[in-house]
Every structure is written in structure tokens, then in C-alpha cells.
Automatic annotation (TrEMBL):
This is Sulfonate ABC transporter substrate-binding protein. Residues 1-18 form the signal peptide. It comes from Oceanobacillus longus. Residues 33-260 form the Solute-binding protein family 3/N-terminal domain. Its main location: periplasm. The keyword Hydrolase does not apply. SUPFAM superfamilies: Periplasmic binding protein-like II.
Length: 316
């Protein structure tokens, strides 16, 4: 009986040890993978398609795991939950995340792409100026760069946000409502802007010039950023390299993006020809841009508290 018990205990001990070994192996494996969140309409899809980051990180003993997200807020949520390590989003999701006390750090910014962001009206619309938007139904994604753009555009003409009827819709749903005549204007970004211009002959009433820079922002999980400055440096370098490629190979970029985005080549061409891809270090100008967005959203009660955007920015 004693022998049987001893044998049983030895077996259980082996199982426990094996289990610990498996857990350690799994943990080590997880640490050897860099998990990146991306959106199809952002610069990281170019990096993913070129495959150069995989080659660089392999030299450092790491693999790349790509995770696709439909929108920036979901990407930021995954970053804060520790499901991904690094990602790209627009200018507004980091502001909401910071207002919610999420642990993340903003690493760098993209180039301004204001020309592809703007307010669209139907080609036969009676709306010919920003002032004509008074009393109209205007669609845009709540809390997005477009939300900020419409506020600033209205204020530039002495109008208030309350002078329009906001219709909160995602870009895809906004396009449908716009086509069906259910809204009078739509505020959106490329390639949704260019596609609406090309396929509906819509009029771009104004673009983002003077209202928003509409930058990309590259963000990282706080713990990952602290532990892996070397890997982040490699990632940013490869984003810049892929950006240089994109800026100098428009035809190849059109061929790459059209099937991924499922948007016609003419619309893709218009979108990429009015923007520049690249990475900018965080500086006082960019910080000021973000702070103004945060202050505007706080003033409109879109975020619950006033924040200082410098608190989550790594300017090194």
C-alpha cells in the first residue's frame, strides 16, 4: 500500500513538474513574439505586406504576430489589456484611453494627412460653405478626428457644435446614409473620402487644412515599452523604411492596397497621392495639437476629465 502511494505521489510530482515546465515554455514563447495591432487603412498594413519587419526581428530572435482591428478604440483596448504590444491608431483613441487611465505610452507620430480628411456634400447640394451647414444633419464617427474637424470648422465661421444635428455613424454606415440622402453632409477620412468623391461625384466642401492634422500615432503597451526599447527602435525604423518605399512606389502601393481595402484603384490613387507616409518624433508642435483635441473634447463633455497629453508621451 505504501509502495502504491509512493508511486502515485511520484507520478503526480512528475505531472506538476511537467506542467510547470510547459507553462515556462509557453511564457518564454510568448515573450519571443511581438504582437502588433493594425488597421487595413493604416501604414502598418504596408509594413505587414512588405514583410521586412519579420526579417529584422528574426535577427533578434523574435517573431511577429499581426492582429487586425476594425477601429482604433478596440486596438487601444487590446493594447491596455496586454493582448498586443504595439499598434497604430488615429489621434483621438489615445485621448480617450488616457482619460480612462489606461496604461500605455505614445511612441511616435505619423505625418499630417489633412488633405484626405474633410467635409463632403452631394454634388448638387445647396450647401456651398461651412455656414450653410447650420441646421443640417452631419454624419461622423463620435470621438474621432472627424468629430474634432467638424467642431473646429464650425467655430471658424462663428457657429457652434449645437448649430448642426450630429449623426454618429462609422465611415461605412455614414457612406450608406449619405448615398441614400439621409444626411446632408459627411465628415470622414481617406480612403472613404476619395471613394465618395470618385464614385458619387461628391464635393469636398473643405479638407482638414487649418482644422486638424489628422496624424497617425504609434503606441505601445507600457510594460512592453519599458522592457523593449531596442525592439521599438527596430519597429519604428522599419515603419519609416516602408514609408519611404510607399512614397516612392505609388503604382505598386495601389496594386497592394486596392485588393486589401476592396476599394477601386482610382480612389486609392487619389488617397495616396495627397498624403505622405512617415514617422515624426514627438515634439512640442505635435503635443500642442493633441492637447487642443483633448481640451476640445473635455469642453464638449466627450471625455470625463481634463488631461495633459504629455503624461503618456515618450519624447525620447
Amino acid at each position: 500500500m505504501i509502495k502504491k502511494i509512493s508511486l502515485y505521489m511520484m507520478i503526480m510530482l512528475c505531472i506538476v513538474v511537467a506542467g510547470c515546465s510547459m507553462n515556462d515554455s509557453s511564457s518564454s514563447s510568448k515573450e519571443d513574439v511581438v504582437r502588433i495591432g493594425y488597421q487595413k487603412n493604416g501604414p502598418l498594413i504596408i509594413l505587414k505586406s512588405l514583410g521586412t519587419l519579420e526579417e529584422r526581428l528574426k535577427e533578434n530572435g523574435y517573431k511577429v504576430e499581426w492582429n487586425e482591428f476594425q477601429a482604433g478604440p478596440a486596438l487601444v483596448e487590446a493594447l491596455n489589456a496586454g493582448s498586443i504590444d504595439f499598434g497604430r491608431t488615429g489621434n483621438s483613441p489615445p485621448i480617450f484611453a488616457q482619460a480612462a487611465d489606461a496604461p500605455f505610452v505614445t511612441i511616435a507620430a505619423g505625418k499630417s494627412k489633412f488633405e484626405g480628411s474633410g467635409i463632403l456634400v452631394p454634388e448638387d447640394s445647396e450647401i456651398t460653405s461651412i455656414k450653410d451647414l447650420k441646421g443640417k444633419q452631419v454624419s461622423f464617427a463620435k470621438g474621432s478626428s472627424s468629430h474634432y474637424l467638424i467642431v473646429k470648422a464650425l467655430e471658424s465661421e462663428g457657429l457652434n457644435y449645437t448649430d448642426i444635428t450630429p449623426v454618429f455613424l462609422s465611415p461605412g454606415d455614414a457612406r450608406v446614409a449619405f448615398e441614400q440622402g439621409k444626411t446632408d453632409a459627411m465628415v470622414v477620412w481617406d480612403p472613404f473620402t476619395s471613394s465618395t468623391e470618385v464614385n458619387m461625384n461628391a464635393t469636398l466642401l473643405v479638407n482638414g487644412e487649418g482644422f486638424t492634422t489628422d496624424r497617425d500615432f504609434f503606441i505601445a503597451n507600457e510594460v512592453f515599452a519599458e522592457k523593449h526599447e531596442d525592439l521599438i527602435a527596430v519597429i519604428l525604423e522599419e515603419i519609416e523604411n516602408s514609408s519611404v518605399w510607399a512614397n516612392n512606389h505609388h503604382e505598386a502601393l495601389i496594386d497592394m492596397l486596392a485588393p486589401i481595402l476592396k476599394i477601386d484603384e482610382e480612389s486609392i490613387k487619389m488617397a495616396i497621392e495627397r498624403r505622405v507616409y512617415g514617422v515624426d518624433s514627438l515634439n512640442e508642435t505635435i503635443i500642442k495639437e493633441q492637447q487642443e483635441i483633448a481640451d476640445t473634447f473635455f469642453r464638449l463633455d466627450i471625455i470625463p476629465k481634463k488631461i495633459d497629453v504629455k503624461d503618456v508621451m515618450d519624447r525620447q
